[in-house]
Amino acid sequence: MHGVKKSAIPPTAQELEQKKKQVDSFRSLINGLLAKREQGNMNPKILPHIGIALKYNPEHYTLWNYRRDILTDSMSQPVTEGVEAEAEGVDGEGEGGGVEDANVSAVATLTEELGVIEAALAKNPKVYSAWHHRRWVMDHILARSGAEDRLAIVHKELDLCKKLLTKGDSRNFHCWNHRRHVLTLLTRETQGGRERERETAAKTTTIPSIDMPLTLALIESDFTNHSAWHQRRLAIQQILTERESETSGERETVDMEFELDNLMSGVSMEPDSEGLFHIWYWLVSTGLSLSGCVGAEAEGVLETQLETYMPLYEDEPEHRYPLLMAKTCLFLLGRQAEADALGADQAMNTHWRLLRKDLSSRQ
User: pLDDT tens, 91-100?
Assistant: First the structure.
């Protein structure tokens, strides 16, 4: 895969026999585990055996379900959130202490579970059931952790996602989706909880401050990384739509000319990319005004964009999106008749009518 040729040397009889023994052993292990699940056996001592099977074959979703069943059964104590416990005066003594001890034990078990999942992902980082299980584990760890621990747990998970994306497959959409879920957890932690903790977290971290450096690094290493482009657009949108900071009264800023110039590098490499076009379209139709780039300044940016994409269309008229970019710039510059006249392909005109309607509604 990816240019790596398989060995042309056939396996020896001894290697084939050893492989057969491994397969037979694995099949026996799987059958035994499935029999225990059918019997309703929820003994936690089974978990290490399931872990061995999943390390060998992380795509066996039934075994991931079995792990969740056992973990759920073993954590039967009611969950008390750290913030709620503090509000109710729980201090670790008496009845409250029993619940707290149960939560501490559950968090320790679930933290070990994260290691099991990492081992499975090391074998195959694109297994739906493994990522689904990790999300479930993360949610339960946070539900049972105190307020002072949750932010650190979320940041540790973000560090893992960063490692997988920068050192492994930077287009792994499973990892990107999981990371977006973790970012929502970060938002919850920085916007909720006790006021002092919320203010401290807000001063030290924001989602754009995490996203912008990571996505830029990934894009600069591969301008065709659509996943990184998409996440960067979301970060830019958040920066531009957030209210003024409660602590400093200042807004984070976005250099829109830099963003558009950077995007041009991706479009020049993939002029037929619909994803890159939609990111560009949002930047010029919405992002410019949100960033405060209006009037003559915005016209200057649009003229530059027109000068960029018109030649790209003229040199290679078979590419759809440079043409739509040129038409969009003309329309936003008030040159609607020129925009409508540019390009004569029927399918293109149908696409342009939809964009024209959307542009008109934004004005």
Answer: 434 444 556 6
